[in-house]
């Protein structure tokens, strides 16, 4: 169930997912996959439905089993890189102000994308870049494995129990909780299963995130997700 909660427990570090959490890239992802599907003569809607649930190689195995998966991946990477250069997307409201307000060395990015794309999108949307970015190339096991978030904590010199994870997707939430971290969900109408607290938007979560790291700021209105038992 969901209940009103008091001031959040103090955390020392914040680990952010990127796409869907800090940057609104949903339409970009749909466009990239639609273009990819068109190149292979596939139904764009069906490809995207599969891509939402699986990693790229798993997507190719389901929707393009007769194709060379390495070629499929190369085409996808080409399209994604072009999207970074020419696609239209924005940061979620409050993202820039939130990241600039966090103390240096207290936050990191943990993404299933690649660092060069993250840096390109952050430059175009005016978001500051932290010292620590754990991307798809940095780990052998991606989300929902706990490895990406544990690696980010290690780079920050942080204990997992001192880390607050901000996520929007089920796989990321599972990754954070399996790492033994506190996980807050944002940018969703209803809580993702497993989150400890839920906010409908990043901007609503921002004062609570700052309060968790920098001390109470009088944030109100947060909700906590607790078990019914």
Give a summary of the structure in a few sentences.
The chain has 229 residues and is an alpha/beta fold. Helix content is 44%, strand content 14%.
Characterization of this structure:
The termini are close together. This protein has nine helices and ten strands. Residues 1-8 and 217-223 have low confidence and may be disordered. The chain is 44% helix and 14% strand. It has an eight-stranded mixed beta sheet, with helices on both faces. Strands 3-4 form a two-stranded antiparallel ribbon. It is of the alpha/beta class and 229 residues long. Helix 6 links the parallel strand 5 and strand 6 (133-134). It has helices spanning 26-39, 44-53, 56-63, 69-86, 95-101, 115-125, 147-156, 170-178, 202-214; strands at 2-4, 13-16, 23-24, 90-91, 107-110, 133-134, 163-167, 182-185, 197-198, 223-225. Helix 3 (56-63) crosses helix 4. The chain is globular.
Residue windows where pLDDT falls under 50 for at least 5 positions: 1-8, 217-223
Helix count? 9
Strand content: 5-15%
User: What is the makeup of the main sheet?
Assistant: 8 strands, mixed
Secondary-structure topology with pairs:
Blueprint lengths: L1 E3 L8 E4 L6 E2 L1 H14 L4 H10 L2 H8 L5 H18 L3 E2 L3 H7 L5 E4 L4 H11 L7 E2 L12 H10 L6 E5 L2 H9 L3 E4 L11 E2 L3 H13 L8 E3 L4
Helix pairs in contact: 1-2, 1-4, 2-3, 3-4
Observed structural traits:
about 230 residues, alpha/beta, two-stranded antiparallel sheet, 9 helices, 10 strands, about 45% helix, globular
